[in-house]
Amino acid sequence: MRVLHTLRIGILSAGLASAGLANAAVETFFGEDAVNGSASAPRPQSDAARDAFIARLNGANTENFDAISAGTPAPFSVNMGASGTATLSGSATVTNLLGAGRFPTSGSNFIETSTNFTISFSLPQTAFGFYATDISDFGGQLSITYSDGTSSTVAVPHSNPAADGSVFYYGLIDMDNPFVSVVFNNSNATDIFGFDDLTAGTAAQVVPPVSIATANLPAGMQGKDYLPFTVEATGGLAPLTWSANNLPAGLLLDPVTGVLSGKPTQSGTFTVEISATDASSPTSLSDTKSFTIEISAVQATAAPTPVPTLGIWATVALSSLLALFGWTRRRQH
After folding, report:
1. pTM for this one?
2. Which strand (E) or helix (H) includes residue 295?
């Protein structure tokens, strides 16, 4: 069975059916907004899902179909840069006509389609995402089948927050099962919808999530130099930026190197939160982890045992005896 991890932004539920695949992890990104067919209306949930998805890619292209003449029917191909070529086929036509709740999410063109819409890639992909407008007003439910010999089907968790002209963004990352084709299935073939801003990425373009790998922080001693210690993290797009909360006074975490150093000035047990943030755009990837760090108190130095001293009269008497002893020995010689 495949495991589905969904970034929950906005109104959603998710389902996944697969054949012949085991122990695979799939990440999906989804957000939906009721915009009533307005291309200029804010779409915070959809855009947040798009930003989170795009942040996981490095060097991937987004195609808005503006370079293709309006009225062009499928099949046609678009250049996806380092992701190769995408060929769109089936019931799809490039249009710039706004109406019935459908509109471009960027630029002036978009794809108008209903079902039996397929995207074939010249290179195996592990990620793809898109905007869709005006689906579900006729009861259609969208699902996507992606495959490279073995197929998987995901149900896009859209609803119908606006009777005419909702918008959603959907993205998917499956690092374990690269695919070369994506088929869009609509439960109602008469429910026409808009499709725009296709993004695809190969395995080399997917940025792994940031994960702090360090398990524990070394203990220290109050007033003593803390042995410099580097906090480690995996994933993300370099460079990482480090930050910390609730460090013992006197300790510092270098924001560039992640090295913890200094001279703690207080003792105790401290719960420290350390964060690593990468350089992904438009939304950075980050991870935060809690640690417990022990700073021992300074050990009190025992006072030296005093050396017994002679009083002044005892000192005079001892000196006289020693002098007399020395004079007697000289007489004997």
Report:
1. 0.79
2. strand 286-296
